[in-house]
Structures are given as structure tokens and as C-alpha cells.
Amino acid sequence: MISLRYGTNPHQKEAFLEFPEPSPIKIVNGAPGYINMLDALTSWQLVRELKEATGKASAASYKHVSPAGAAIAKPIDDAFKESQFLKTTDFSPVASAYVRARGGDRLCSFGDVLAVSDVVDVSLAQFLKTEVSDLIIAPGYEPEALEILKQKKKGGFCMLEIDYDFMPTGIEKREIFGVTVAQDRNSRLFTKDDFKNVLSANKDISEEALDTLLVAAISLKYTQSNSISIAYDGQIVGMGAGQQSRIHCTRLACDKADKWFLQRHPKVRGLDFKDGLKKVEKTNLIDQYLLWDSLSAHEEANMLENFNTRPEPISREERAEWIKQYDDICLGSDAFIPFRDNIDRASRSNVKHIVETGGSLRSDLIIEAANEYNMTLTATGIRSFLH
Fold first, then answer.
1. d(CA 210, CA 232)
2. Is 9 a catalytic residue?
3. Residue of 144, 137, 181, 129 lying closest to 161 (CA atoms)
4. Among residues 372, 326, 367, 374, which one has the least CA distance to residue 349?
5. Active site annotation includes 226
6. Plot region of 195 (φ>0 → left; ψ -120 to 50 → alpha; else → beta)
7. pLDDT digits (tens, 9 = 90+) for 176-226
8. Active site includes 387?
């Protein structure tokens, strides 16, 4: 048994970990809290499954038991570099996976728990040492990378090491209000074979788009249930997590994805910030700029004070035109899509591929809507609720 800092809240003093023997997890540095461990153990499952499904180094950035971002390793282009305030694009595969995962929603990734599928190397450690994060879980650490990260947070950065081959089986249990609930553990892993049932007239899914669909589907499996994901080029760019209505999930995910693509717009990349602003401050300003129409007069005034010259808003027409240039945007749903309004909203974010469970009473209407927009629609037959 290992004591934790505290439970869900600081007044819940009694909190601890109990491991099976031999323990699959080692606390390398720091003292994690209860929610840290929920994020760590959930995010680890995501990146491990993603690595198994794609064969590529994978990473996830978690906040409050849902991914702010997830990605597989791919080269980073100049537009991503500039929009994310990066100083280089020269990253190792495992580092590129995390840089892309964190960049999927950099506002929500602030103070995250991160998981990576591969051994932490110097490339990742050098990037991570200046980012605001609480904990990392990985299958191992290079000695130099370990020493770099031990300096983070004045020596208090939490680092966990987990046995890559550990895979629990049988019954899993949770206690809620003094009552124990139990079920077979969801050990069903996604593979590319699960994506062969394409119901739409358009069945043209490239290998790269298939990898992105896997990112969308697997990320949803480890998100609070009733969620929609938007993925592009092997990374999550919008997550609508845990909403009571699926259309609200879709709107939330698509709105986040739209903002992600608009971060690359020339008007955003040309914003004339005042000197001395930190990266997180610029991130918040860009978020406000892209939500300009919804700002109060006070918020607008505060935003404009941080620019040397007044920026020009991006019009509705410019936004739509900009997003149209991006191909193979994917939408994932962790259960069946019940109404075509989800498809209609997705079309406005230029979604081209959809993966869902299938089996809705209105499946014919969902397929019809996908065909109207020349989307591909894949039904896996797998509902992937986390809880």
C-alpha cells in the first residue's frame, strides 16, 4: 500500500494505492494524488491500446479523467510549430506524439497528466521540462531524461513507471456510497479489422485516415461516457466529453476542432502581441480572439489591451473557407449516433469520415445523411463506454 497526498479533495485525508503482487507500477519521483492516479491509469490504457493498434509511439494529455488530447507519432510541420509557439520541429517519435497530443487542446492541457507508450527519452524530457504538467506515466525512462525531469517542479514532479506487459483480467470493482459494483473488465481492444464495416456509399478510407479513425475511437473508450471526438492527421483536435446529449457532445467537439484549425489562420499567426507575454497568456488571448463575438465588453477591452495593434476579426465566411482546406477530418462516437443533426453539424466542420457503434433505430437516416455529404460511415458494432 502506498499513501497518496489526499483524495479527490484536500479534506479527504485518507487516500492510498493498493497494488497486485508483484506491483506493475513504481513511483519513480514525487507524490501523486487520487485524481492524478485516476488520470494516470486511464491515460496509460489509452496510449498502450493506441500503440498496439497502430504500431506507432502514442501519447495522451489528461485532465479530470478525460483526454484533452491524444496522438500518434508523426512529423510536425511549420504551421503546427508556429501555431503552438514551438522553437523546433526536431522531436523523437515519442516526443512528437506528446507534443501533438498536448497541442490538440493546449488550453485544457495546462497542468495535465501525460502518458506515453514508449520509454521517455531526452527529446521528450527537454520539451516537458518547461511545460506545466503534474505527472507522467511511461514504461521507462532514459537515465539522462530521468535526471532532467527530477529537476521539474523543484524536484516534486510526479513520475510513474509501469510494466508495459501488465494486463489485468477478470472482475473489476468500484465502491460507490458503500455499495460495491462489479463487472467483467473491458479488455476488448480495437484493431484495424473492426473498421471494415463501411455502411456509406463512399468507402474510400486511406491508411492514414484509418489511423486517425483509430485515434478517434480508442480515445473515446477512455473518456467519460457519452462523448464525441474529432481527429485529424493522427491526433485529437476536439473532444466533447461526458455530455448528457450526443448533439451537445458533437457541437462541443466540433467547436473545439474549428478553433484548432483556425489557430493556423494567417490572422491568428499574425497577431501583434505586446512584449513580455508568456505562452499561456498568448494561448488564452487567441482563445478569446476566436470567441470574440461572445465576449463581454469588459473581456473585449482586456483582450485588446494585450495587442500592439487592434486585430481584425475572422469573418464567418473566412472561417468556413479556411476549414474546407483540411482533408480527412474524422469524427468518432462511443455509441450509436441517434439523429442526423450530429451529421449535419459535423459537415460544417468539414468532417469526411465517421466511426460509430451502429445499430440505431434510425441508422438508415444516419447513412442517408452521410451519403448526402459524401462522408464515409463505419460501424464497429462496439460500444466503448468507460463508465
1. 11
2. no
3. 137
4. 326
5. yes
6. alpha
7. 999 999 999 888 899 999 999 999 999 999 999 999 999 999 999 999 999
8. yes
User: What contacts 24+ positions apart, CB below 8 Å, involve 307-315?
Assistant: 307/271, 307/272, 307/273, 307/274, 308/272, 308/273, 308/274, 309/272, 311/267, 311/271, 311/272, 312/267, 313/289, 314/262, 314/265, 314/267, 314/268, 314/290
Measured CA to CA in angstroms, residue 21 lies from 17, 29, 166, 186, 263 at distances of 13, 21, 11, 21, 47
Q: Which of 36, 56, 221, 226 is catalytic?
A: 226
| pLDDT of residue 387 exceeding 70 | no
**Active-site residue among 29, 36, 51, 63?**
63
248 classed as catalytic: no
Label residue 27 by pLDDT band (50, 70, 90): very high
For residue 101 the three cell numbers come to 497530443
Contacts of 104 (CB under 8 A, 6+ apart): 61, 68, 69, 70, 71, 235, 236, 237, 238, 239, 260
